[in-house]
Amino acid sequence: MSPMKETPLLFGPGRNLVGLWCEPEGGTPPAVCLLLVNAGVVHRIGLHRINVKIARHMAGQGVPSLRLDLAGLGDSRIVGQAAGFREQAVGDIQAAMDHVERTYDIHRFAIFGICSGAFNGYAAALADPRIVGLSMMDGHAFPSWKTPLMRHLQRLQVVSVGEVLAALRRRLAAPFQAGPKPPVADAVDTGGNEDNDPVVAATAAQFGQALQTLVERGVAVHIVNTGSRIDDYSYAGQFMDVFGHHAFAAKVVSEYVPEMDHSVTLLSGQRALIERLDRWMARLRPAARGAAA
């Protein structure tokens, strides 16, 4: 591994945000910084320390990174009057970019996030032109007509004939065994329902329009879907089947990695993810250098 240096940072309007800066020592001045954000409520180290591993690998490739805790997560505090969750996340990411610009004189950014981190990265990329690369793992997924068929085919490959017949018998017997249904309580909207979040609840048309905007701006968009979300994404060509009729689709790198799980638990899955991110960043580095010049 190439020499690198890691430095804890405090930034944000009330110095309430905490991050860890990871940079290669020596070499040419970097042209792009990689931002690594929380997945759900997980600390900035990431699921199974994947953000740490990504950051250190990228440092070996000459790319600095900042893995940060958004306000209210990990070591970062919420200060002042809390904004809406998505608005707060975008503001925190922009505060991180502001700090990196002032401190390290880097003005181009790529962002990687898993699950909620993917949604936050997507929202930030739409809001801020300094983001020139967006990689989303297990974020938006839009099924095609093939998705349920491919899902069933994959499941049939890992179950026995006896298990299939047993499941069929249970399904046929269910209507005759069901008792009275319990009363259903009135739904209560707590304000945290994802259906109320326009980022998460984006339709395929809205998502496609957003990708078109990003691609036209020159953003390198990278999408990864894992085997954990087989109900929504079940085969390699699904992205192109849904969006292939759009001009932007050919410029988006979409990868289906069924052997990798949502939490990148296995070391083999972690290596597979880092290899894919490395190829994505290789696309970004020359473009970012040219933009900086």
Tell me the fraction of residues in β-strands, as a range: 15-25%
Task: Profile the largest sheet.
Answer: 8 strands, mixed
Please write the CATH class name: Alpha Beta
Query: Could you tell me the radius of gyration in angstroms?
Result: 21 Å
Task: Provide the CATH topology.
Answer: Rossmann fold
Number of helices: 8
Tell me the distance between the termini: 28 Å
Write out the CATH superfamily name. Answer: Alpha/Beta hydrolase fold, catalytic domain
Can you tag this structure with a few keywords?
8 helices; 8 strands; single chain; 8-stranded mixed beta sheet; 293 residues; Rossmann fold; alpha/beta; disordered C terminus
Description:
By secondary structure, the protein is an alpha/beta fold. It has a single domain, classed as Alpha/Beta hydrolase fold, catalytic domain (Rossmann fold), CATH 3.40.50. 39% of the residues lie in helices and 17% in strands. Strands 1-2-4-3-5-6-7-8 form an eight-stranded mixed sheet, sandwiched between helices. The C terminus is likely disordered.
Helix and strand arrangement:
Blueprint: E1 4-11, E2 17-24, E3 33-36, H1 50-60, E4 65-69, H2 85-104, E5 109-114, H3 116-127, E6 131-137, H4 147-156, H5 161-177, H6 204-216, E7 220-226, H7 238-243, E8 253-257, H8 267-292
Parallel strand pairs: 3-4, 3-5, 5-6, 6-7, 7-8
Antiparallel strand pairs: 1-2, 2-4
Helix pairs in contact: 1-8, 2-3
